[in-house]
Design brief:
alpha/beta; Aspartate Aminotransferase, domain 1; Aspartate Aminotransferase, domain 2; 2 domains; 4-stranded antiparallel sheet; 14 helices; 15 strands; globular; binds 4'-deoxy-4'-aminopyridoxal-5'-phosphate; transferase; Kynurenine--oxoglutarate transaminase 1; cytoplasm; pyridoxal phosphate binding; glutamine-phenylpyruvate transaminase activity
C-alpha cells in the first residue's frame, strides 16, 4: 500500500508544474538587486523611486479619501477607472493632445504603468507576432512579450562619441534609421517606445519620433508608448507625445504613472490613454485579470490632477516644480561622478543617470569563467564592498547584446540631498583609496 502511494506521488510530481510560457523568464533584476540593496547598501541609488515625500496636498488628499465622509471610497469602484479619475485624466490629456477624450472609452486606469504594459502585450500580441523593442529598455518588456507568445526583436540605440572634452549626453545615443527599418516585417505587430527612456534618460526628438511614426504607418503597426517620465524633462527640452503626430493617435496607446508624476511609486496607480478601438481590448484583459485598482489611491490621484489642471504651467504646479528640483539633483550627481572619473552620460530626462565604470572595473576581482556580465559583478561588488547600490546597464539589454554594453551602471538621482551627499562621500573615499593605495 505505502509503495503504491509513493509511486503515484512520484508520477504526479514528474509532470511539469509550471506553464511553458514561464520558461526562461524566472529571473528578475529588481527582485535580485532590491534584496542586495536591503542587505548591504548604506546608500541606495538602485531602484527608481524618490526617497523624498510627495507633496503635502497629495498626502492630505489620500487621508481625506481614507477618513472622510464618503465611506464608499473603501469599496469597489468602476472596473476601468474610478469616475473622478478617468474624467480628470480625459480632461488633462485631452488638453495636452488637443482632442476631445471620452473618459469612459479613451482612458483606463491600471495598477501602475506596469499593469498597463501587461494589458497591452496580452491584448495585442499573438503567438508568432513580433514586437520591436529599442535597447536599452525597461526590462519587463521582454518577458511580457514572451508571456503573450510573441517574439521580441531588439534594435539598439547607438552611442556617438561626444565632442572633444565634453561629457556624453543621452542625446548622443541614436537609432540607425536603416537598422530600425530593417526590423519591421509582416510579422511585426507593435513597437514599444519609451521616451523619456529608462535607463539612459534619452528624450526622443521630433525627428526621431517621426521616423518611428512613418514606419508604424507604412507597416500598419501599433505603438505602445511608455511615457511614465513625461514630466521629468530637463534643460528646457520638450517631451513630445508620439500620439500627437500625424496619423499616430489611432495606433498608439499612451501609458502614464501617478507614481512618477506625483512621486508616490508605492500607490501603484497608472493609466492608458488611446482610441477606443485599442482600449476596448485592454479592458477585456483588465476585467479578466486585475479588475480594478485601489479606490482610495485613485481618488487621491484624481485630486492631484484637479490641482494640476488649476495650476497648469504656473510656478506652483508640481509638474513645473518637480523637473526643476530633479534637474538640480541630476547636476549634483553628474558633478560627483565626473569628479572621480566615473564618466556620467548626462540624461535629458527621467530619474536616472548612466555612468561609465571603465576606470573602476579593475578594482573588482576577475572571475574568468563567469557567465555574468562584468557590470553585474561590478554592481554586486560595489553594493557589498562600498555600500552603494546601482543597477548594471546590461540588465536593460537582451541576452545576445548584454556583453556589448557591460561597462556602465545606472544610478537613480531622485533622492534627498543628504542621500546624494552620502553617495558623493563614498565615491570620493573610493577615489582617494585608488590613488593612494
Ligand atoms: N515603465 C517604465 C519605463 C518604468 O521605469 C517604470 C517604473 N520603474 C514603469 C513603467 C512602471 O511604473 P509603475 O510604477 O507605475 O508601475
Amino acid at each position: 500500500q505505502t509503495h503504491f502511494l509513493s509511486l503515484s506521488l512520484q508520477a504526479k510530481m514528474s509532470r511539469l508544474v509550471q506553464a511553458r510560457r514561464l520558461e526562461g523568464i524566472d529571473k528578475n533584476i529588481w527582485v535580485e538587486f532590491v534584496k542586495l540593496a536591503a542587505t548591504y547598501a548604506t546608500v541606495n541609488l538602485g531602484q527608481g523611486f524618490p526617497d523624498f515625500p510627495p507633496l503635502d496636498f497629495l498626502k492630505e488628499a489620500f487621508v481625506r479619501a481614507l477618513s472622510g465622509e464618503n465611506h464608499m471610497l473603501h469599496q469597489y469602484t468602476r472596473a476601468f477607472g474610478h469616475p473622478p479619475l478617468v474624467k480628470i485624466l480625459a480632461q488633462f490629456f485631452g488638453k495636452l493632445l488637443g482632442r476631445d477624450l471620452d473618459p469612459m472609452t479613451n482612458v483606463m486606469v491600471t495598477v501602475g504603468a506596469y499593469q498597463a504594459l501587461f494589458c497591452c502585450f496580452q491584448a495585442f500580441v499573438d503567438e508568432g507576432d513580433e514586437v520591436i523593442i529599442i535597447e536599452p529598455f525597461f526590462d519587463c518588456y521582454e518577458p511580457m512579450v514572451k508571456m503573450a507568445g510573441g517574439t521580441p526583436v531588439f534594435v539598439p540605440l547607438r552611442p556617438k562619441a561626444p565632442k572633444e572634452g565634453k561629457l556624453m549626453s543621452s542625446a548622443d545615443w541614436q537609432l540607425d534609421p536603416a537598422e530600425l527599418a530593417s526590423k519591421f516585417s509582416e510579422r511585426t505587430k507593435a513597437i514599444v517606445l519609451n521616451s523619456p527612456n529608462n535607463p539612459l534618460g534619452k528624450v526622443f526628438s521630433r525627428g526621431e519620433l517621426e521616423l518611428i511614426a512613418d514606419l508604424c504607418e507604412k507597416h500598419d503597426i501599433l505603438c505602445i508608448s511608455d511615457e511614465v517620465y513625461e514630466w521629468l524633462v530637463y534643460d528646457g527640452k520638450e517631451h513630445i507625445r508620439i500620439a500627437s503626430l500625424q496619423g499616430m493617435w489611432d495606433r498608439t496607446v499612451m501609458i502614464g504613472s501617478a507614481g512618477k508624476t506625483f512621486s508616490a511609486t508605492g500607490w501603484k496607480v497608472g493609466w492608458t490613454v488611446g482610441p477606443n478601438r485599442l482600449l476596448q481590448h485592454l479592458r477585456t484583459v483588465h476585467q479578466n485579470s486585475v479588475y480594478h485598482c485601489a479606490t482610495i489611491a485613485q481618488e487621491a490621484v484624481a485630486q492631484g490632477f484637479q490641482r494640476e489642471i488649476e495650476l497648469y504651467g504656473k510656478p506652483d504646479s508640481y509638474l513645473v516644480q518637480l523637473p526643476k528640483m530633479l534637474q538640480q539633483k541630476r547636476d549634483w550627481l553628474v558633478q560627483s561622478l565626473d569628479a572621480v572619473g566615473m564618466k556620467p552620460i548626462i540624461p535629458e530626462g527621467t530619474y536616472f543617470l548612466v555612468a561609465d565604470i571603465s576606470e573602476f572595473k579593475s578594482d573588482v576581482p576577475d572571475v574568468p569563467d563567469s557567465d555574468e556580465p562584468c557590470d553585474y559583478r561590478f554592481a554586486k561588488w560595489m553594493v557589498k564592498n562600498k555600500g552603494l547600490a546601482a543597477i548594471p546597464l546590461s540588465s536593460f539589454y537582451c541576452g545576445a547584446h548584454k556583453n556589448n554594453y557591460n561597462h556602465f551602471i545606472r544610478f537613480c538621482f531622485a533622492k534627498e540631498e543628504a542621500t546624494l551627499k552620502a553617495a558623493n562621500d563614498i565615491l570620493q573615499k573610493w577615489k582617494r583609496e585608488k590613488t593612494s593605495p
